[in-house]
Design a protein that fits this description.
Strand content of chain B: over 45%
Distance between the termini of chain A: 41 Å
Order of helices and strands of chain A: EEEEEEEEEEEE
Number of helices of chain A: 0
Order of helices and strands of chain B: EEEEEEEEEEE
Structural class of chain A: mainly beta
Shape of chain B: globular
Oligomer: heterodimer
Largest interface: A-B, 23 and 26 residues
Number of strands of chain A: 12
Largest sheet of chain A: 6 strands, mixed
Shape of chain A: globular
């Protein structure tokens, strides 16, 4: 069975400081992992994905994430936060069982202070 | 990348009426489609999975007679909320998967449904 846990319901950072959004997963098989961003009343935009290639994945807008199998983690980071990064972020796990179902984390709201 | 068009982006309807939401894949063949709903300040919950040409598979607790899903072609899936009630008010999002799993998932822009 798959599951995903986002360890923080909200994170607040100052503009220009690093961002860390934490995600832990469990999966019976080799998972694929994704990070999505959702701005208010908008759909989801894919930031990056891990699908068994390089463990350090670079995404759009300066975000990156590292797949650590030993820690079952896939934390999202960005060196310097921008005001436009304020949004809801979802960590998603999927594997090749049961029709490639995707399981969403509860989400982390990122606040960026000026 | 894949482009998904979902509409309407928002709809207000009266209790007891039905609402249809469309999800179109504009540039690839979507063999599998997923429908999610999202309540305010909550995560997305998978409602059902549909495969082109076959019946949808609904998640536990989702009424299949209330949320009708049709995936008649490789480019179009529809979700019809029948006899809508205020508690059906939510944000509905579709997701399409291409023929290759590693292609990943593409999400529609969502539909905000308000039942009054």
């Amino acid at each position: 069975a798959q599951s995903v846990t986002q360890l923080d319901s909200h994170v607040s950072v100052s503009e220009g400081t690093p961002v860390l959004l934490r995600c832990n997963y469990s999966s019976s098989y080799s998972p694929s992992l994704f990070w999505y961003v959702q701005h208010p009343n908008k759909g989801l935009q894919l930031l990056l994905k891990y699908t068994s290639a390089a463990t350090l994945v670079k995404g759009i807008n300066g975000f990156e994430a590292e797949f650590k199998k030993s820690e079952t983690s896939f934390h999202l980071t960005k060196p310097s936060a921008h005001m436009s990064d304020a949004a809801e972020y979802f960590c998603v796990v999927s594997d090749n069982t049961g029709g490639f179902k995707t399981i969403f984390g509860a989400g982390t709201r990122l606040f960026v202070k000026a | 990348g894949a482009v998904v068009s979902q509409h309407p982006s928002w709809v207000i309807c009266k209790s007891g009426t039905s609402v249809k939401i469309e999800c179109r894949s504009l540039d690839f063949q979507a063999t599998t489609m997923f429908w999610y709903r999202q309540f305010p300040k909550q995560s997305l919950m998978l409602m059902a999975t549909s495969n082109e040409g076959s019946k949808a598979t609904y998640e536990q607790g989702v009424e299949k007679d209330k949320f009708l899903i049709n995936h008649a072609s490789l480019t179009l899936s529809t979700l019809t909320v029948t006899s809508a009630h205020p508690e059906d008010s939510s944000f509905y999002i579709c997701s399409l998967q291409g023929a290759t799993f590693d292609y990943g998932y593409t999400f529609g822009s969502g539909t905000r449904l308000t039942v009054v």
